[in-house]
Amino acid sequence: MFRSAAALCLAAGLLSATGSSEAAAPAAAGRLDHDPVPHQHWSFDGPLGNFDLASVQRGYTVYAEICSACHGMQHVHFGDLTGMGLTAAQVQTIAASHKIPDGIGSDGKPALRAATADDAFPTPPVAQGLIPGAVIPPDQSRLAEVYPGGPDRIYALLTGYGPPPAGVTPAPGLFYNRFAQGRAIAMPPPLSDDAVDYPDGTKATTEQEARDVTTFLAWAAQPHLADRHRTGVRVMIYLVFLGVLLFVLKRRLWSNVH
Predict the structure, then answer these.
(1) 3-state DSSP call for residue 81?
(2) 43 and 49 in contact (C-beta within 8 Å)?
(3) In this structure, are residues 29 and 183 in contact, taking their beta carbons and an 8 Å threshold?
(4) Using CA atoms, how far apart are residues 37 and 137, in angstroms rounded to an integer?
(5) Where do the DSSP E strands lie in the chain?
(6) Is the pLDDT of residue 250 over 80?
(7) pLDDT digits over 17-26, tens only?
(8) 242 to each of 76, 235, 238, 248, how far by Cα in Å?
(9) Which DSSP category does 83 fall into?
(10) Rounded CA gap, 233 and 47, in Å?
(11) What's 254's DSSP letter?
């Protein structure tokens, strides 16, 4: 899967470095719009929302095996993965499988070392702008928070690829996607059925992969969401209790006043 994901990065490199992942409208379409994005039900929606950690873990599998070939997550550290239910030993194993820069070696060349839990996820060369002519993919650390449309739009983009309608021809190097701005995007379709093997045995359809990786990106952007929601509920309960207490106290103090 890493080989196929890397091929996607190279394919995107057909565009100029000044391009964007969502490109201008296809030449034949002549429009700068896209299909309305359907709202999805997410476990983390609403004031009492919480992350489905099984989905978050599956989403990390999709990110690690597909997305990480092009997209970095420079604001996420390996140690943060304990927040999605992994043990410290599992996190250390994942970290050690990555190599990160470690200064200059004795031979005068850049040295590498195995990552630790304290290290941030490495940024791939294409995201560092080291591949001439390639579009620089956005960092995914906070993508679910800053991307217009949020998780709904990310899921829609990942599942919105398909053959263009009759009479519509995307510009060279672009791919038709009905949810992309102008219905054209520089990123080749990253997901497909059975693109990954889920450790928990979940069937890896394109839609499942898209839902899981979107959930993972939402978790990466707000890893403490559940804690904030629990704190908010406690504060609301306290305020309601305090309000009732003050009301009762007021009635007692003014009960003899007519």
Answers:
(1) helix
(2) yes
(3) yes
(4) 22
(5) 99-104, 110-114, 175-176, 184-185
(6) no
(7) 333 455 444 4
(8) 39, 10, 6, 10
(9) G
(10) 8
(11) T
Q: How far apart are CA 59 and CA 78, in angstroms?
A: 15
Compute the mean pLDDT over every residue in the chain, rounded to the nearest whole number.
84
CB 15 within 8 A of CB 129: no
Residues 37-69 have pLDDT tens digits of 999 999 998 877 889 999 999 999 999 999 999
State how far the Cα of 45 lies from the Cα of 155, in Å rounded to an integer: 15
Q: SS3 of 110, please? A: strand
CB 74 within 8 A of CB 121: yes
pLDDT per residue as tens digits for the range 83-139: 999 999 999 999 999 999 888 878 888 899 999 999 999 999 989 888 887 888 999
User: What does the CA dihedral 103, 106, 110, 111 come to, rounded to 10 degrees?
Assistant: -70
